[in-house]
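ok so i was messing around last nite and threw this chain in just to see what happens. nothing serious, just curious
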Amino acid sequence: MTTSAPATAAPFYTPPLLHPVHRFGTRTIDFSRQVALMAIINRTPDSFYDAGATFALDAAVAASLAAVDDGADWVDIGGVPFAPGPALSAGEEADRVVPVIAAVAAASDVIISVDTFLPEVAALSITAGATVINDTTGLSNPELASVVAESGAHLVITHSLASPRTVYPHPHYEDVVAEVAGFLARKVELALSLGVPADKIIVDPGHDLNKNTLHTLEITRRFNEIAALGFPSLAAVSNKDFIGETLNQAKDERLEGSLAAGVVCILGGARILRMHNVASAKSAIGMTEAVLGWRAPAYLKHNMGDANYPAPSTSSAS
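result:
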């Protein structure tokens, strides 16, 4: 007797993926039945979360490989924070990220992305072993798409409004989700026109990027409208300010809120989760995939046979 795969339960959104299966170097991910876990590696002295803990080259490489050991499918390596600040030259940024990419690529087949908006850095990173360019500025420089198209790498298109590394005070939206989805759809069309294939595009609504906490909660709640664009969608929720403001928690207290927000996004169609706490996120993703019917339990024992119940005592009172 054969049985079909379990259907996804009604409350869970199944996005209409144009290309469910994506190939990243030697790895293949079927986003119709899998959520990829992206670890965050910041080679910056002033990163949002770790405050420079992985700025040293050895520390960045070690953290990347530790994330792989903890179950990451993907490591995202960045050399410049998103936050406003002075510009970093392409040469300085490449000096930060390229050696990490090369070392990780030599030691693992993990998917590697570089968080950059500079075409020169993207090109050098791809040569070093990156297979994804993660542009948090929404193609502020269209030349980046041309570099990606020529290389065969993937491109993450993220919603943000400010010019790179500049302040965007008091962002206002009439309907934040509709406007973010519209922005991403336009940028996807731009990327396609510049030669990036549809099966190499990923979208990210940009939690907290030029958005206040109410905006970001709305995006999380209506994530299905982002996933409905038909491209694998990324949820970058880890330890962000919307969690801290919602729960009144400091950065080092936001793990549970991050996991909850991530699971909500997955149930809304997210297929890549970008997280700092890899081992905990791996468990949350695995449990969610099992509930969705995509993953079998590691083992079955509870209430599966007589062994679960002790035999009745045969001793008699003396």
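not much to say yet. The chain has a mean pLDDT of 91.
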